[in-house]
Design brief:
- The protein is an alpha/beta fold.
- The chain has a single domain (3-293), classed as Vaccinia Virus protein VP39 (Rossmann fold).
- It has helices at residues 3-11, 20-27, 50-59, 81-88, 108-113, 128-141, 177-186, 227-236, 266-269; strands at 35-38, 42-45, 68-70, 73-75, 98-102, 120-124, 146-148, 162-168, 188-199, 208-209, 224-225, 241-249, 270-271, 274-278, 286-293.
- A 7-stranded mixed β-sheet has the order 7-6-5-8-9-15-12. A 4-stranded mixed β-sheet has the order 1-2-3-4.
- A hairpin with a 2-residue loop joins strand 3 (68-70) and strand 4 (73-75).
- The chain starts with a helix and ends with a strand.
């Protein structure tokens, strides 16, 4: 696979009629030196043109991951991504490592990871909108994060292998989860690790829920496994170690409607009479966080 040709082709996405005005808004930003705080709220302080910043941020909606604060503009994203990041933070050490984030969205997690001093940070996400949101924030952060308009299917062909790969909230969107896990495996260097987050259902058996048409109003959810079934998928993909780090049920303080998104959020996805179930009658979204190890001599 020729990634350079693919990169050139995908760069043309930035000229789409719905994306080009967003790119122009970023190009027109008055770039100033900003102090950067990489806490729960990724915060940029400086002498900004506040009206310009606010207008650009609004143009870039919807903001799914965050939160961010630029000057007086607080981008209250749908997901309070700091909750997931802080849950995972005790389980990884990224110093001097080559790190990839698959399905990186606007880069919130990668901006937080900068404090860990990785050797390299590369995000993979084939979304021109999320890439533009990333560029908006990075205009002021001025990091050396690499954002690739590529997907997990390109990982095994990438020019370098990674020590740690984060794959948070992607696996359930794939109709062949074992094939995707194999792609993650092939993207790792020897003895590399994957930090994986996916939906799961309770149960002792080695089985998976297969939603008929949607799960929590999300149409592209194909399989929601028990933890035992997930472990089997990972072992079949070649990983030698499967470690459950945490489990959690998604709460309304973590995912909710704000003025920075369009459409519905978690409160609309759950049965209003019984929040332990989705509107379709399935178990409400719960997540399992695992560490997978590639230990191939």
């Amino acid at each position: 696979m020729n990634l350079e040709t693919l990169r050139k082709d995908r760069q043309k996405w930035m000229t789409w009629k719905n994306i080009a005005p967003l790119r122009k808004a970023i190009e027109d930003l008055e770039v100033v030196d900003a102090s950067v705080s990489l806490e729960d709220v990724v915060t940029l302080d400086g002498r900004f043109d506040e009206a310009q910043i606010f207008a650009a941020a609004k143009l870039l909606m919807p903001w799914r991951k965050g939160p961010f604060k630029i000057g007086e503009t607080f981008i209250d994203s749908e997901w309070q991504s700091n909750i997931k990041y802080n849950l995972l933070r005790p389980y990884f050490d990224l110093k001097d490592k080559r790190v990839a984030d698959i399905g990186c969205n606007n880069g919130y997690y990668m901006f937080r990871m900068l404090e860990e001093k990785p050797k390299a940070l590369v995000g993979f996400d084939p979304s021109p909108l999320y890439k533009t949101q990333f560029d908006f924030i990075n205009t002021f952060v001025k990091s050396e994060i690499v954002y690739e308009l590529l997907g997990v299917e390109h990982l095994e062909f990438y020019e370098e292998k990674f020590d740690t790969i984060f794959c948070l909230g992607v696996l359930y969107h794939r109709s062949d989860p074992v094939a995707m896990l194999k792609q993650l495996y092939k993207g790792l260097d020897t003895k590399g690790e994957v930090i994986l987050d996916t939906f799961y259902i309770e149960g002792e058996g080695e089985m998976a829920l297969c939603p008929e048409s949607s799960y929590s109003k999300i149409p592209n959810i194909y399989f929601v496994p028990t933890i035992k079934a997930l472990k089997n998928w990972c072992l079949r993909a070649g990983f030698t170690s499967f470690e459950v780090l945490q489990t959690s049920v998604t709460q309304k303080n973590e995912q909710r409607k704000t003025e920075w998104i369009e459409g519905q959020s978690l409160e609309d996805f759950l049965d209003p009479q019984d929040n332990t179930k989705t509107v379709e009658g399935y178990p409400a979204p719960a997540r399992v966080y695992v560490r997978l190890i590639k230990d191939k001599k």
